[in-house]
Amino acid sequence: MTGHPDAATVLADLLLQREALVCRLAEGRPPRDFAGMYVGPEDLDRILTSLPGLDGPTPLLTAEVRKRTDPDLKRARAEFLSMLDGDVPLAVLTRTAGLAVPDAEVLAVLAAVETSPARQRLVAYVQDSVQQPLLTVATLARIFADPDHPADRCVAPGSPLRRAELVEVAADGPWATRSCGLPARVVWHLRGDGSADAGLPPGSARLPASRQRTTTAGAGAGTPGGGGSPAGAPAGAAGVNGTAVGTGVGGSAGPGLLLVHGGDRESRRRTVERHWPDQGRLICPMPETGLQWAAVVREATLGDLVVVLQSTAAPDAAGADVMVRSTHLNWALSSPGELPLESVPARPWREIRVASGEAGPEDWREVLGTEPDPAYRLTRGQLRLVAAARQDTTGPLGPAVRRLAGGYLDRLAVRIRPRRGWDDLVLPGDDLRQLRELAARHRRRGTVYGDWRFPPVPSTGVVALFSGASGTGKTLAAEVVAGDLGLDLYKVDLASVVSKYIGETEKNLERIFVAAGAGDLVLFFDEADALFGKRSEVSDARDRYANIEVAYLLQRLESYDGLVVLATNLQRNIDQAFLRRISVAVDFVLPEEPQRRAIWARSFPPTAPVADLDLDFVARQFKISGGLIHNAALGAAFLAAEEGDVITMRHVILAIKREFQKLGRLRTEAEFERYFELVNRDADAAPTR
């Protein structure tokens, strides 16, 4: 089938030529330019004499023609059978698809016609119709002319050729005139081209076998399933960090179905690879249409591949039927969780649970050539992505890991690269100690849970609760802790996470936790009571699903191994279930006068031009938060810059006035004292340069 005469094309040519001789010599049919366009008187006579029960010279003449060509045809069939023990594409495909010899002969004839315009003209002559250049079902039965040869039954709906999607038969018209052909992918394969089927589900990939197949080339030629890979591992075989938990119906050796769940996607792939090491794999999403299912079956058959379907759900009824019919293929269903038993296709199956997807020392050495970095807990799939993103193979791993997490989190959270440290944080001494203890809990997890073997119940993660009024330093504290640990801080954008559509909030949160788990970063949930609030009485469907979101979030928080900071204005708004999970709780209160004095002083950089600032006065008189102090200092700087002047008390007092106006707060003489007239004027004097 590769352009030069071989046993397959010789056999096909002899069969077609013999039938052409029958038409020419026995039936006396001359070639016509408009064959099949009309029925003339001579056509009617020939048709009548060929019908069963009517005598005529044709059967005797036909037998004579067939008798003369039988020796050549016998030799061609013997050579074709010998060829099936070789390694040409047609022979390998015959074994992979589990075809019997008659199936292979039909496939060879159809392929020969598909690849030759001359043969197509010959077929049109045999079928007496220029409109039928491909063999019809009836002509298939006629050219083999052997009552013991299945011929037309080789292209029946349940035949091996049809189950393997190697042959296409026209869906309409009379049975006898339905044309038979090969999908383009099959023709290209027989011609030596290995391009993937264009009909595969988007995102499909073909991976080679992990070891060389040891079976002989000719084993099982003409036997269904011959040469195919057995189900491989024994019933108790374990996958990557996994255990076999059951054997389905049957459980015998041979092509079968493997259910793999748990861990991460890469670990499940490796489990399939270890189960069938001498077969390549076709990795693809669950097909959505009949054409995609056909392309998957065809591609796996042509490449002798295990089909690995990646999905969170089992195939639908139509897909399950395809898997049941394709008995020559091995299938694997890869899913994060267990599939319902009633949805498993009705064929022998085994199940393997992948206990963990975390990359081990051997994975680190294989992918990066180094020992594991205790700072990062990466799955096998994430480890390979990090290796691909790493610019400098000798440099630190942190930038590549952050790049991995950022690709997912940047759509749902705001990245804050810490720039401020402990000196920028003005808090009571006990609060500062709690924050340092929080950083220490995260930094020393390896020692406590690893070296000292404390049980990580429920996980090694650290959850902190920062409560207090707005502007008291919760976000700044989270940034300082992240900076002390050398981690990025991601402030979760609640507007992009919380959805009115049922189930979407959980999906968004899952993306956040999965990505954050790879990057070893700090997750900061501001206004956390919007997500972690108390569960309410169920009065309608929305209440019920809101409570489900809270329950899901609690479960996800308990299994997360990183650092999470929850910030809320009121601690009592947080559900008690979350409070039990809190490792460190810090209550941020309005700063006292000494803290306010320190915050005012640090709000003006040393390079800022200031003159006669009475920081003791503003610290004593105005009981405001650190956030308002920073805003007022910045506002005073802009007022002074616009006037082309240095920053004075006048600018500071006017900036405080603006902050009070934003809050709707009254300006009293008791607070502003000697500056009360300045802030209480109907209109300030226009600034001058």
From TrEMBL:
| Record bears the keyword ATP-binding | yes
| Keywords from the named record | ATP-binding, Nucleotide-binding
Q: Which CDD domains match?
A: RecA-like_protease (cd19481)
* SMART domains hit by this protein: AAA
- Keyword Nucleus in the entry? The reply is no
Tell me where in this chain the AAA+ ATPase domain is found: 460-592
| Region described as Disordered | 198-235
GO MF annotation, one: ATP binding
Q: Which InterPro entries match?
A: 26S_Proteasome_ATPase, AAA+_ATPase, ATPase_AAA_core, P-loop_NTPase, WHD
State where composition is biased (Gly residues). Answer: 219-230
Give the family this protein belongs to, as stated in its UniProt record: Belongs to the AAA ATPase family.
Descriptive protein name = ATP-binding protein
**Which organism does this record belong to?**
Plantactinospora sonchi
